[in-house]
């Protein structure tokens, strides 16, 4: 793992907050950011990604469209040297589709922007890296998601399990240790506006 954590103070969970309370608190903090602050921190995360070795070695990258003030990494999507894939929620699963900047998008079940269902499907064998949207991450790579289990199911599947993963969060959502369950799969890395871990 790449470490660059001299500027980052890891958050600690002092009380045994459960996942639901922690998720609610962090989402509230995230949505209380001003737009300029959110934009500036998001741009710094994009810059951090661009300097990471694992990102620079990847050709086909699965990413996400920012929702509810998640870090916005969309400036990266115009990089024509890479193929970009985005998820579409179908039932309890994520289906990944190839997307280019002039392709049509649609609104999915949760109000999240998704590729059109006719867009070409991306198979796991083609994928070099998955950028995982997260509510929080910790130093062990454990991630707090939104509670739907979509990424847990995906990353538990043998076809997807060996693909490198990076959690994308703001500094305030990067912890020394998060509560986790035995089915949670740790990510290989975490990127915030000040660290690549």
Q: Based on the structure, what is the oligomeric state of the protein chains?
A: single chain
Reported for the largest beta sheet, the result is:
6 strands, mixed
Strand content: 15-25%
Please give the order of strands in the largest beta sheet: 3-2-1-6-9-11
Count of strand segments: 11
Which residues form runs of ≥5 with pLDDT under 50?
A: 1-10, 12-16
The portion of residues assigned to helices is 10-25%
Structural class: alpha/beta
Radius of gyration (CA) equals: 16 Å
Q: N-to-C SSE series?
A: HHHEEEEEEEEHEEE
Average predicted confidence as pLDDT: 87
Query: Helix tally?
Result: 4
Shape descriptor reads globular
Taking the alpha carbons of the first and last residues, their distance comes to 6 Å
How is the topology of this model organized?
Elements: H1 19-31, H2 35-51, H3 53-56, E1 60-62, E2 83-90, E3 93-99, E4 105-107, E5 113-115, E6 129-133, E7 136-138, E8 143-144, H4 150-156, E9 165-168, E10 174-175, E11 189-191
How would you describe the overall organization of this protein?
There is one protein chain. 21% of the residues lie in helices and 22% in strands. A hairpin with a 2-residue loop joins strand 2 (83-90) and strand 3 (93-99). It has 197 residues and is of the alpha/beta class. The N and C termini lie close together (6 Å). The relative contact order is 0.23. The protein has 4 helices and 11 strands; from the N terminus they run αααββββββββαβββ. Mean pLDDT is 87; it is low at 1-10 and 12-16. The chain has helices at 19-31, 35-51, 53-56, 150-156; strands at residues 60-62, 83-90, 93-99, 105-107, 113-115, 129-133, 136-138, 143-144, 165-168, 174-175, 189-191. It has a 6-stranded mixed β-sheet with strand order 3-2-1-6-9-11. Strands 8-7-10 form a 3-stranded mixed β-sheet. The protein has a two-stranded antiparallel ribbon with strand order 4-5.
